[in-house]
Amino acid sequence: MDPKRDPLMREIQKSSVRSPAFWWMVEHHDEIVARAAGGRLNWTVLCRLLADRGLVDGRGAPPTAAGARKTWQRVRAEVRRRAEWEAARAAERSKVSVPPARRKPGSVPAYVVPGPTPPAPAPTPRSTTPVSFPASPAPLADGEEEYTPEERARIEAAKAEVRAQFRKSDEKFRLG
Question: 176 burial class (0-12, 13-18, 19+ CB within 10 angstroms)?
Fold first, then answer.
């Protein structure tokens, strides 16, 4: 069915919550802006002309100057919102398009519908053999040291370096 003739689609496209004057201003927004050329609009005269065309406000009454001015502000916001929505939609389409090297010069990027996601890789089989741990070292004899003095010095230096790194990250965390 033609969307222009289908009352449901017409209602979705142009909600009856807004007045006929609002929708007329939306449809003629670009022309109004161009003809006004940055100048002020005479809302008293414009309201008389809108009423002569049968365009009314949200209550069904002829528009007033204050009401028409406020409606124009809402129209401008609506037109801006729609333009942003269209720009976001176009940007989204361009993200998933044919790579520029494959496009013909001057052609518009085609929207590419992403295909199904590939299946997850099969899990790797796990071994059923039990894990064995190395045997514990033999106990030290009396007076025997676990590490040589050089090894102990390297271990202590490494510990000090790790502590210093933790202090730095801790200070950043407290300050951040």
Answer: exposed
Instruction: Note whether residue 167 is domain-resident.
Output: yes
Q: Is the pTM of this model over 0.70?
A: no
Beta bridge partners of 97: 111
Domain that residue 56 falls in: 7-96
For residue 101 the two structure tokens come to 């090297």
Query: Does residue 108 lie within any of the structural domains?
Result: no
Per the domain annotation, does 69 fall within a domain?
yes
pLDDT of the chain, 176 residues: tens digit per residue: 565 667 766 666 666 678 888 888 888 899 998 988 888 889 899 889 989 988 888 888 888 999 999 989 998 998 898 888 888 888 777 765 555 556 666 665 555 555 566 666 666 666 566 656 566 666 677 767 777 888 889 999 999 999 988 888 777 766 65
In single-letter form, the type of residue at position 110 comes to: A
List, in sequence order, every residue forming a beta bridge with 111; answer none if it has no partner: 97
Q: Are residues 12 and 92 in the same domain?
A: yes
By the 10 Å C-beta count (0-12 exposed, 13-18 middle, 19+ buried), 71 is classed as buried
